[in-house]
Amino acid sequence: MAYVEKTWSGIKDWFKTNRPEVLETLNVGAQPADFAALEQYFPRLPAEFYTLYHLNNGQTNTFETGVFLGLPMLPLERVVQEWQANREVIE
What we know:
single chain, 56% helix, mainly alpha, 5 helices, 91 residues
């Protein structure tokens, strides 16, 4: 998934130049164990998703500026929490 890594590097370069404080909110990359809870709900995720989250496991809770059009990149743990909360509302 070299293109994911290259694209993500370009995005981070832009933030380094224009909004360096956003880079400080990025978490270290996820480890295989971090994906376990998520895979209970989403057993078939694209390889690109794994690649991206191995690079950075979302942002910290200081979501003053998200990396995706101002929206935060949720850590995997928070993705599961959001899915559970939304699922309860739907059901």
